[in-house]
Amino acid sequence: MASQLLSHARRVAFAGTTGITGLATYKAQTDPVHIFFDLDHTILCSICPLPKDLNESEVTNNSKGLPAYLPSPPQLEHFDQIDDDFPFDSKTMEPNTRTYFRPGARMALEVCSLFGVLHVYTAAQESYTNNIMRELDPERKLFTKVLHRDEYPAIVKNGKDLSVAIDRMDRAILFDDKVSNFKPQKYQNGVGVIPFTSKQVEKCLNSSDQERWEAYLAEMKEMARLVGISFWSSVHFSGDVRRVVSWFHGWSEK
């Protein structure tokens, strides 16, 4: 009897999972959720001027008592660029900014693209945004729209109005580290993201392996949270993402 009950429970669980996955696929094709991602401090962190003291830590596992077989954390993906919001040498055109991608950000974007339509919404200028897009989405297959302050200058003072890109607020989510950017939609469509700042970058670079792993996992956990919010918003029975978003408006450093 016990084995029969267990077998039945497994079938029910599998059917439930299959049903949710099928619903997500159906929604993605017929009524997708539109997911807007901020750039700075949400999926990346840019540091200007070029940091000279942020290098991969040389501290070994054993120095902190970690098992010798535990691998070192992966390197923090980054690239150098010119951010023309800040001084730079126009003769040498040497980069003045280093941009670090948040651990787990690329994977989160790829997963979200399976059931949603992705957009970039940033208060940065066009030149800087284009630099990011060349690294993040070189073939322009990931993001449908890229919105920046040169095209929508009101972003800077008034926040990010999603209606400039989509007319259905029941299917739109904005992930941003600045909650003030949610004001145009009366904070109903925004989810606050724990900021990925230079402090977090330093933790991922200039620490012992144990501390670096902890920092990496914390950032990946935050990205996984955004994926979960996006997924459940896409399949929520009400069809209105704001019902799910209302549970996650802000963030805390707990």
TrEMBL record:
GO terms for molecular function: protein serine/threonine phosphatase activity. GO terms for cellular component: nucleus. It is found in: Nucleus. Residues 28-223 form the FCP1 homology domain. Its EC number is 3.1.3.16. It catalyses: O-phospho-L-threonyl-[protein] + H2O = L-threonyl-[protein] + phosphate; O-phospho-L-seryl-[protein] + H2O = L-seryl-[protein] + phosphate. This is protein-serine/threonine phosphatase. It comes from Cyclotella atomus. It comes from the Eukaryota. Gene3D superfamilies: HAD superfamily/HAD-like (3.40.50.1000). Signal peptide: none annotated. Its main location: nucleus. Keywords: Hydrolase, Nucleus. The keyword Nucleus applies.
